[in-house]
Design brief:
The protein is mainly alpha-helical. It contains five helices and no strands. It has one domain: Up-down Bundle (Vanadium-containing Chloroperoxidase, domain 1), CATH 1.20.144.10. It is elongated.
């Protein structure tokens, strides 16, 4: 549970916002003047939703492979919808997926290594 919560907090609140502070990528709805179906503000890369859901999926996968795969599939489907409605580019989703997964797997490894003999 600590890996799930920790990976979500670290990846979304710190790393995503740090990247967005330095890299200002406008959302497709702004750049291409599309009708806005979902109210979104701010920059698009990396996707915060993608980061959160893939961090949770990866953390769950560390403890329960079958449930983790289900969460990964659900995360892919949810994030495809974010591209369809124009609030993200596919690369925003992939960036969030990589970021969230790396943070979750790294935290899992560090926690397991530290508390393995406890």
């Amino acid at each position: 549970f600590a890996v799930t919560v920790g990976s979500i907090i670290v990846s979304r609140l710190f790393i995503v916002e740090l990247i967005r502070f330095f890299y200002h990528r406008p959302r497709p709805i702004i750049l291409y003047n599309l009708n806005q179906l979902i109210p979104e503000t701010g920059y698009s890369f990396p996707s915060g939703h993608s980061t959160i859901f893939f961090a949770a999926s990866a953390a769950i996968f560390c403890y329960n492979k079958k449930l983790g795969v289900i969460f990964f599939v659900a995360s892919v489907l949810m994030n495809i919808s974010r591209v369809i409605v124009g609030v993200h580019y596919l690369s925003d989703i992939i960036g969030g997926m990589i970021l969230g997964s790396i943070v979750a797997f790294s935290l899992f490894y560090l926690i397991e290594k530290k508390y393995k003999n406890v």
